[in-house]
């Protein structure tokens, strides 16, 4: 890595450590002098999914202020949240790589207007109770946020890969910087393993090749991820963006149309809940769906009997998918030979979660390289943004179907 990149990362981590520590110990206060008890992290996509997933998954390690995440531009969410908070002790964190993301800026303006109303502040005063995380500090300053309250990260880091950067500030506040460092260390362990292990024992490479086999040779269009740990409920949401935004591409690096199927549809839910929702299709449906089961051998938050039943269910589902069952009644026939992989963590802690996430990140990278696509852009999201701006700008030149929908929705005459 370039020296300048490493220097920037070290400087920003020092800021993360110092600022999160002062917020957690009460020396960094709100406008009225009250210590921070609650944090609203406002972002969307990679500025939301990664930190939110980590904070939820590692909730047993929470020792700091309560962290709340707002992403959707649906105003009911933020307006409902602020009714439950004390403005004097609430910090607003605005996370946006470009600091131009429409949904994030609207939510930020609403949160800051709430501070102004509740605490009788002017615009400049409310910004002193706000921290920005961005690659565009000039935009954040133009928004009114003081320079010393702006955290940055390099332009080369895409949103869906940014949880390891300053975007992980909410993790530092909730869990403490030492736990954030353990999370980073877990990711680094997998990176080192990926770079230095031979192909036959290289876990990300093997996962990627198995996925290629299912996708391109067996025609599987989807991939289910089923964590048998309720705290990993948002892990699937994060993987959806990581995989589908990275590898859902139709053009190669050379600008040619791809000749192979690229990234699969990633979906899932925690077990055992999923067993009572969609496992019927996995076992007896006509679609081939490869499954990743994720479990923990130990769980100190649970009771031994609960955890024993949870793990037994996971392993039973894996066995049933593989072996099936012959039965004279066709309705009770299980074909079997349905693919799954099982990943077992010793326990869920910051380091193991970092390892798990890095494992999937490297898998996605390998698959993108094999398909000769760019796993680090996302042009597919741009057209919708442009058309949204066109609609909000009052443009009338739409197709008949869209024009009628706009009328029905009250967005045009």
Please characterize this protein's 3D structure.
The protein is α/β, with parallel strands linked by helices and 413 residues long. It folds into three domains: 3-175, Rossmann fold; 189-377, Glucose-6-phosphate isomerase like protein, domain 1 (Rossmann fold), CATH 3.40.50; 381-413, no CATH class. It has helices at 3-25, 49-57, 75-82, 102-119, 123-127, 137-142, 169-175, 177-196, 203-217, 235-247, 279-284, 304-323, 350-371, 382-392, 400-408, and strands spanning 38-42, 66-70, 90-95, 130-134, 150-152, 222-227, 265-267, 291-296, 340-345. A five-stranded parallel beta sheet has the order 2-1-3-4-5, sandwiched between helices.
Task: List the defining traits of the structure above.
alpha/beta, Rossmann fold, five-stranded parallel sheet, 413 residues
